[in-house]
């Protein structure tokens, strides 16, 4: 299992990569392994400002549906087009081609509240 150190993490298993005033968000390697084969991603919040820790979509696996929680308050700018046709990319490359949304940060200070790679690894290893 991988825990890239350039990312921040949530206790709900999302990751965020900050790129200036924008960020890319996805689910962690741990989360995709726990979910199993992902068959559908439903994100209908494009253009919406989603508060920190609120649901911005769902991920459907063969056996379950899980909510996706926004790591920081942000406006959803785009959904990864590739995952519509190939949701399995989230399983195959959760930190690369399997990203979920690009957002514009509303409050960059919230990023500091998130878990480091080491803290997240400790949480999921416990």
Automatic annotation (TrEMBL):
Belongs to the GcvH family. The keyword tRNA processing does not apply. One of its GO terms (cellular component) is cytosol. The glycine cleavage system is composed of four proteins: P, T, L and H. The keyword Cytoplasm does not apply. PROSITE patterns: BIOTINYL_LIPOYL (PS50968). Binds 1 lipoyl cofactor covalently. Residues 22-104 form the Lipoyl-binding domain. This is Glycine cleavage system H protein. The modification N6-lipoyllysine is found at residue 63. The glycine cleavage system catalyzes the degradation of glycine. The H protein shuttles the methylamine group of glycine from the P protein to the T protein. Keywords: Lipoyl. GO terms for biological process: glycine decarboxylation via glycine cleavage system; protein lipoylation. Its cofactor is (R)-lipoate. It comes from the Bacteria. PANTHER family: GLYCINE CLEAVAGE SYSTEM H PROTEIN, GLYCINE CLEAVAGE SYSTEM H PROTEIN-RELATED.
